[in-house]
Amino acid sequence: MTDYTPLHLDWPGCLNVRDLGGLPLTGGGTVRERALVRSESPSFLTDDGVAAATAYGLSRIIDLRRPAELEEWPSRLAGLPSHLHLPVQAADDPIEGPWVTLYTGLLDRRPELFARAVAAVADAPEGPVLVHCAAGKDRTGLVVALALSLVGADLDALADDYELTNERLAPRYAERFEAADGAVPGREIPPTRHVILGALEHLRTRHGSIEAYLTRNGLTRGHTRALRARLTAPTPR
């Protein structure tokens, strides 16, 4: 565990929105504030939530969900010109388990889509970039972890941030569980830090590094430089 204090954002309707500014880097310094934001689906936003999200000045919104999910749960931010739909799965991709297998399957099956999503963070106009999926946990967790790894994020802090989603979404899951009288088929223990760390280690073992995984599948050196410039806060002298 680290001393990293997350910057939770109050966007009414959503429970799991945070600016990753302040997350420590291994070589010193931190991730820049108002550069990268993660959340669950904006379909949960109230009118006040939409206003808060819009006021944050998002320069790009990256929606990682499948087309069918967008149709069933439309994003309340989809009308903004900064919205991009960049799914990291094909419509017929299988859902596998347990958790680490799910994540490595996603990464191995569609590497070009993950590279595309990270590139979209790197080449966004100036301003905060929002990355989201449905819960802001799995697909969002992977894309955020890839981007943060490229700029040298502290792995313990990265894992701390990943695990925070369980805490943030607990009230929503508790309501669903109660509404179903506890009869929720296949209800599982939420994934913990070992899941995201295992997925990243899988990429290092199989491809040599996370950067190699991404560059072999479309991320350019220019994207990597732009990502570091975007996400890395200046180190105080």
TrEMBL record:
Gene3D superfamilies given in the database record: Protein tyrosine phosphatase superfamily
PROSITE patterns according to UniProt: TYR_PHOSPHATASE_1, TYR_PHOSPHATASE_2
SUPFAM superfamilies associated with the record: (Phosphotyrosine protein) phosphatases II
Cross-referenced Pfam families: Y_phosphatase3
Domain Tyrosine specific protein phosphatases residues, every copy: 112-168
InterPro entries: Prot-tyrosine_phosphatase-like (IPR029021), Tyr/Ser_Pase_IphP-type (IPR026893), Tyr_Pase_AS (IPR016130), Tyr_Pase_dom (IPR000387)
Alphabetical list of PANTHER family matching this protein: TYROSINE SPECIFIC PROTEIN PHOSPHATASES DOMAIN-CONTAINING PROTEIN (PTHR31126:SF1), TYROSINE-PROTEIN PHOSPHATASE (PTHR31126)
Protein family (similarity comment): Belongs to the protein-tyrosine phosphatase family.
Protein name: Tyrosine-protein phosphatase
Taxonomy of the source species: Bacteria, Bacillati, Actinomycetota, Actinomycetes, Micrococcales
